[in-house]
Amino acid sequence: MILLGELRVKATTENLRTIASFLQSVGQRLQLTEKTLFEIDLAVEEAATNIVRHAYSADAPGDMVILLEALEDVIHITLTDWGRPFEPDKVKPFDLNAPVETRISGGMGLHFIHSLMDVVTRKTQADRGGPNALVLVKKIERLRPGARPPDVARELNAMLSVSQLMITSSDLDLLLQRIVNVLVETLDAERGTLYLIDESTGELVSQVLIEDREGLQQVRLEVGQGIAGYVASTGTVLNIPDAYLDPRFDPTFDQATGYRTRTILAAPMFDHRHQIVGAVQVLNKRGDVFSTRDERLLVAMVAQAAISIENSRLNAQELRQRLVEQELETARAIQSSFLPQRTPQISGWAIAAYWRPMREVAGDFYDFYTLPDGRLAVVIADVSGKGVPAALFMALSVTVLRFAMGLELSPADVMGRANESILAGQRSRMFVTAFIAYLSPVTGETHFACGGHNPALVYRAGRHGCEFCSALGVAMGVFDTATFEEDTMTLDPGDILVLYTDGITEVINETDEEFGEDRLAAVVMESAQFSAQTIADRIVLAAVNFAVEEGDFDDKTLVVIKREPE
Amino acid sequence: MTNVLEREEKGITIYTPEGRIDTQGAVDLDLALQSAVAEGKHKMILDLSRVNYISSAGLRTLADVLTRNTKEGGDLKLVALTPRVLRVLQIIGFHNFFRIYDTIEAAVAAYQGADA
Q1: Given strand A220-221, what is the order of strands in its sheet?
Q2: Percentage of chain B with pLDDT > 70?
Q3: Residue of A nearest to B69 (CA)
Q4: Which of A164, A298, A386, B99 pairs with A289 at a CA distance of 20 to 30 A?
């Protein structure tokens, strides 16, 4: 991973423009296309705005750090804050009486982030004080494909980056190794060692020895012994231009390994209580001696590293994580119970459904409901956002829609009613897209409405072709004046209706192409003679096989309804 | 500071914001549009030809002003969207919800047609 740059600013609205300029400058250096730069710009602004608004109080803004890294043509953007962890369902008191428009902003921002970025992950380190990290991953397009990013001022960039690099690492060994890697690389040293004080013996124990895999496995020093021992006992930084002229230098290790130490730079490591917890030394600056600038860099980086190490040692956090996971499993079970337990059995028709959340819980759902007049109502829907907040909102949406259908309203009026109900409970700041179809099993006549959802795919057996059907509408939960239109189609024998969420059509392959409606239609065409269940299986299989692993992050839901051929 | 030019034509208020309607820019736009709404101006045209960026904060303002204007028998018509801005509206599904025109003249004509 190449470090592209890092910016640390106070989380204020004014600084959003600073962030934008920072992204512009990195983007220009990378020669990103306008499109990529724009998408990154927008996603980061939305994410940073959420930090400004929700992570900190307006009167006491804390820091946020935007870290940009690249691996080949994939950019990783990490936004870190030390405020309240992200909880979109939790509304701050001053929002309760805010006008309608402020309430949709959170949901909208998240929607942009998820739409524009390929992968979005969130990590929260501690229950108090953060850090919270949001990692956005995006495949980038460059003006000149294959152009390497020009070398950047890596010292400056690395200086504050150690802790951010490590936020995602819970494995202490890996963390230490990465820290030493960054130190050695940034300071142009040949090797480096990180010692931590073993609290039981009081000894300094080496944790990582870069480029020293043979010979010494682990070094244990008395505090006070050798250069590292000296800095760990005195708390001072040592910059030694010629090791063999310094009486504190212990040549035993050189003799044991055949390595020749020339120059040493060593710094103590403090914890947040200013207790010495270890020391770091780097050896043999390439072609030179360590400068005073190197000293400052090392001190700054070690300070950051110390925080990371402390964080990763908080295994209370792990316990908490496990608890959260258990709760999520329960949540998933509850959520599954909202879905129909079986697909309807209707003579002359075959129905299959597929539901798979990418995390434990999903924002997608489908529903079947038998209307008093004998028609079958079919619903597929996608709630904004992901994870638990989306799941909670999904539960609300299912209830609201079922209630409206129970009132014998038409599909469009169901959406209108649901829209009002969701807006009435305006604290959620989320919205839901849906496709609702009422199907008459006798005639095949189908009335449908679409609230900002993907169009339905209809396979016509008569002409062996596919068409997409939609109706004018908008996501529910945004506008109180939203109107929904309704349309009608007839499913003849052999015809197939496929309802799906964007998790099916928007999976991305390694060349950044979407699976798309055309491929979906192609799969349906090839599978048209099979059962509804087989068609559903083949669609899912095609989408999953198409996707690169990191491009497949969305919930997938699918309903296939086939009118049996005569 | 996002500059928002304002002029009136045939009882319709036409706004031409410039630059980024990001979280900060939205504050300026919101101020301009909401104060007009408060003054009872409900027939608006927003000329977006000089806007190359809009984020959710700006959309929030647009949604709110549209909602308020529509209640008063007015509208917020959008004009000359750049491809980027259009894409943002499409992602959120707003493109179907706003009436969008290529030119100010077309938007003005649409108002007059509705009055006639």
Answers
A1: A220-221, A204-209, A189-197, A276-285, A264-270, A238-240
A2: 97
A3: A481
A4: A164
